[in-house]
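Lab notebook, bench 4. The sequencing result for the construct came back, and we need a structural model before the next group meeting so we can plan mutations. Quick request posted to the team channel:

Model the 3D structure of this chain.
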Amino acid sequence: MRKTLIALMFAAALPTVAMAAMPEGPGPMGGPEGHMMGGPGHGGEHGPRGKGGPFSQLDLSREQREQIGKLMGDQWHAREDLVKKYLDKLPAADQKAMQDEIAAGKQKTQADIRAVLKPDQQKKFDEIVKKQEQRRAEWKEFQAWKAQQPQKAQ
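Done. Here's the predicted structure in token form:
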């Protein structure tokens, strides 16, 4: 059981590594207007990522960056589905413990990031975090509504 939990936590961390390897430059998956913080398809209001990713040396065209970004996004979603599949097999107490640990880690990282920022950057960072929380709440609400739709149609 412990090995399974460790493996799931490792698998959950893999998307972070994949996102660090995303292509640089303008476009939906790279560059100033397309940086992501929460995975594929999330806003472009996040700061620039460090240079030197594996794709930065390939001189990719915009179309190539988009195609690679889509492939990596598909991989990210497939990995997320796989982790969920095995996570669902864990007892509820272990699932809750893992979710709490992930949430605590996220809060610590956000606090650490905020501590590095200047006051004006902290204000903008707080706005970004608030917008993300609102979007997550809206998404949960939509998912709940969507789950009820087939029941009403019957």
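The radius of gyration is 18 Å.
Will bring this to the meeting.
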